[in-house]
């Protein structure tokens, strides 16, 4: 009886508790069934989300072209290979959808990737052993080309699949890299999620990132646990909006001329820095711009110099500044070119240090101001500013030439120089380019007024923006006159003075004479500040430069070159590397642009027009091009040409390397080739190439004459020669190189 009583008491307690719990749980289930919501989360939406796959449809980044439509940057599709291993993925399928035979799969794929079969087999076996649904293959299968993917798909191996992606590719390698810049895949936050997207890091890629980038789309559909689409997948597709294309003013042919000669100068003289800019002075279009050190945007590792020195690195210009000093004096009406003055040294008063001419202050006796310009006299420049113009009026002209501000060029990272103009001595030394600093592009902009009848033009590198889908021009630039600091008459007089520095017996720029065109310009030998105070000393410790234009009566091309601290032997002068760059680019560039020579006596450079070469007889084609003076490299011993780095109708300069691939390609000897040429031949032959170092090729892993096939690995080591090769030189010094700041 006592036991039954206890049982009844416990039951009396538990039954109500269970009843309450039942009511609560039942009510909760009924609530969930009625509302479909748990903790504020809709079960229906949660289920949809779990069975919905969503993928980003990447917008294709816009291309970058030169002014003739040559592709300089584009998105190259790549593919990542992966393998499905779970046999359940093949359920209810007529054909297997997972890897059935790992050994056969590895044996067939490995040759197409240029690896041993074990590199494919081991990931497959490890995945099967660990009961993994799928496996990837790492670096060997992460960046496959479309051709590699297609070749693997043709094998029809079950379980082998690909994800598509893209990388930014620069077909010309180290070509205008400081202008083009580069883009890389980076993580960005989009709709609250972290996603990968190609973004511009430097140069035009960065400057025009929003224009080039486009807008990604997406695709979503419902699937089962094996990722198979449901019969009614509720598919939603949002198409991507591709980026727009950007056309530059850069001309591929002229830029190539610049790149090649800069590489040669690095090889010969090993300077600390080089800068070169080529401009159309009638429009302000920059046709070429390059610097050394540079980098390959396809692999921007160990970059020595990120800066585009032409726009971002001001320095004391030296005597190129005298162009604007003489222009100011002429325009102001205080210049008499035949008036004599005592050269050598000049001291305003006892409180101001004396100014010396660059030949240790010896001077040339009493000479005219015109001859002072020809001989690049610092004393003449100082007298013009202090005695003729006045320092305040001179400053007004410097400002009229916009030498105190940015040019506004459409490139990132522009830094203007600084007019140092606080003390009397600083005002005097500015007249011959010491103390104050300028960038090359500031000097080029100001010099357009000299070449263009007094009208100063805005420099620019972006020609137009084009809708990549429709081809419609969205925006197009035109020449923009931004000032008129001098008159047409003054400009003509300065052009005459510039020509005299090249042609006159005592001129400082005789080395810059062209064979077929009259040329004028001004050289500079600028001192380099010493971090410990004062200036560096020694024959090599200068920035040697030249700003010139041709034909001088009506300039069609203008070029600025500077070479910092080249390694010179006893017989060499700083003008040698500068003039090598200037004369090669200007002579060939003017011929390329079909500018009529204005000098008698020289044989004009004949451009080579490329005939129809594809599928033609290789021996006949090589003979034809060689007879025209072409630099031809034949790749292989086949009887037919199957591809080339030029197209029918192209015109090339004699020194450009023409690569002809035969139907039986073998490896040529590329020792001594540049990085650009090496990348070009690798692209033609569809080789996997690895570039080690920079400069010129010193080793190649594929021996000359070896039969090659697509996807072979080509490893090439490059070095900048440490020993400078000497060339015969004229031991007579030009006046500009005697001493000091010229």
From TrEMBL:
Keywords: Membrane, Transmembrane, Transmembrane helix. Residues 727-742 have a biased composition (Acidic residues). GO terms for cellular component: plasma membrane. Gene3D superfamilies: 2.20.70.70, 3.30.70.2110, DD-peptidase/beta-lactamase superfamily (3.40.710.10), Penicillin-binding protein 2a (Domain 2) (3.90.1310.10). It is an enzyme of class 3 (hydrolase). The chain crosses the membrane at residues 9-31. One of its GO terms (biological process) is peptidoglycan biosynthetic process. It is found in: Membrane. It comes from Oceanobacillus arenosus. This is serine-type D-Ala-D-Ala carboxypeptidase.
């Amino acid at each position: 009886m006592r036991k039954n009583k206890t049982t009844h008491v416990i039951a009396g307690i538990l039954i109500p508790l269970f009843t309450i719990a039942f009511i609560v749980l039942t009510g909760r289930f009924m609530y969930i069934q009625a509302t479909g919501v748990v903790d504020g989360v809709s079960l229906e939406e949660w289920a949809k989300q779990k069975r919905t796959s969503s993928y980003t449809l990447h917008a294709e980044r816009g291309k970058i072209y030169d002014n003739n439509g040559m592709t300089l940057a584009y998105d190259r599709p790549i593919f990542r290979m992966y393998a499905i291993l779970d046999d359940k993925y093949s359920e209810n399928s007529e054909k297997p959808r997972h890897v059935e035979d790992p050994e056969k799969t590895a044996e067939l794929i490995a040759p197409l990737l240029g690896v041993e079969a074990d590199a494919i087999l081991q990931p497959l076996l490890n995945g099967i052993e660990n009961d993994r649904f799928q496996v990837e293959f790492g670096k060997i299968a992460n960046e496959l080309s479309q051709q590699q993917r297609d070749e693997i798909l043709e094998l029809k191996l079950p379980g082998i699949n690909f994800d598509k992606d893209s990388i930014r590719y620069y077909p010309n390698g180290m070509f205008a890299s400081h202008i083009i810049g580069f883009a890389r895949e980076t993580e960005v936050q989009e709709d609250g999620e972290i996603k990968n997207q190609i973004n511009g890091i430097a140069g035009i890629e960065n400057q025009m990132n929003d224009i080039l980038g486009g807008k990604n789309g997406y695709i979503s559909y419902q699937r089962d646990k094996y990722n198979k689409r449901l019969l009614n997948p509720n598919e939603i597709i949002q198409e991507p909006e591709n980026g727009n294309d950007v056309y530059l003013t850069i001309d591929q042919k002229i830029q190539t001329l610049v790149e090649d000669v800069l590489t040669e100068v690095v090889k010969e003289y090993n300077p600390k820095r080089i800068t070169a800019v080529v401009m159309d002075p009638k429009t302000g279009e920059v046709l070429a711009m390059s610097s050394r050190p540079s980098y390959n945007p396809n692999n921007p590792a160990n970059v020595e110099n990120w800066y585009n020195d032409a726009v971002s690195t001001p320095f004391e210009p030296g005597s190129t500044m005298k162009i604007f000093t003489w222009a100011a004096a002429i325009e102001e009406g205080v210049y008499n070119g035949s008036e004599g003055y005592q050269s050598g040294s000049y001291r305003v008063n006892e409180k101001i240090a004396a100014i010396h001419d660059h030949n240790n202050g010896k001077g040339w006796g009493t000479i005219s101001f015109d001859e002072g310009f020809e001989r690049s006299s610092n004393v003449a420049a100082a007298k013009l500013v202090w005695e003729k113009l006045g320092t305040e009026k001179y400053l007004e002209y410097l400002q009229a030439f916009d030498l105190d501000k940015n040019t506004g060029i459409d490139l990132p990272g522009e830094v203007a120089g600084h007019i140092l103009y606080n003390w009397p001595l600083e005002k005097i030394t500015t007249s011959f380019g010491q103390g104050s600093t300028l960038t090359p592009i500031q000097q080029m902009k100001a010099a357009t007024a000299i070449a263009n009848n007094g009208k100063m033009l805005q420099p620019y590198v972006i020609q137009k923006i084009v809708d990549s889908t429709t081809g419609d021009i969205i925006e197009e630039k035109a020449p923009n006159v931004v000032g008129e600091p001098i008159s047409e008459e003054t400009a003509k007089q300065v052009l005459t003075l510039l020509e005299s520095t090249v042609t006159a017996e005592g001129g400082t720029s005789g080395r810059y004479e062209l064979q077929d065109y009259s040329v004028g310009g001004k050289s500079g030998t600028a001192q380099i500040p010493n971090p410990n105070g004062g200036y560096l000393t020694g024959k090599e410790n200068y920035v040697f430069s030249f700003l010139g234009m041709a034909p001088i009566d009506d300039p069609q091309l203008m070029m600025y070159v500077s070479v910092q601290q080249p390694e010179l032997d006893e017989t060499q002068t700083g003008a040698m590397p500068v003039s090598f760059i200037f004369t090669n680019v200007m002579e060939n560039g003017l011929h390329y642009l079909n500018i009529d020579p204005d000098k008698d006596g020289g044989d004009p450079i004949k451009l080579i027009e490329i005939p129809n070469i594809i599928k033609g007889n290789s021996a006949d084609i090589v003979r034809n091009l060689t007879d025209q003076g072409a630099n031809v490299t034949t790749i292989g011993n086949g009887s037919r040409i199957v591809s080339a780095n030029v197209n029918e109708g192209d015109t090339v300069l004699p020194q450009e390397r023409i690569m002809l691939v035969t139907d039986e390609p073998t490896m040529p000897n590329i020792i001594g080739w540049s990085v650009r040429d090496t990348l070009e031949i690798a692209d033609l032959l569809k080789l996997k190439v690895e570039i080690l170092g920079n400069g010129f090729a010193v080793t190649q892993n594929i021996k000359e004459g070896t039969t090659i096939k697509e996807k072979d690995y080509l490893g090439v080591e490059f070095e900048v020669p440490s020993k400078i090769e000497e060339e015969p030189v004229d031991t007579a010094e030009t006046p500009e190189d005697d001493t000091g700041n010229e």
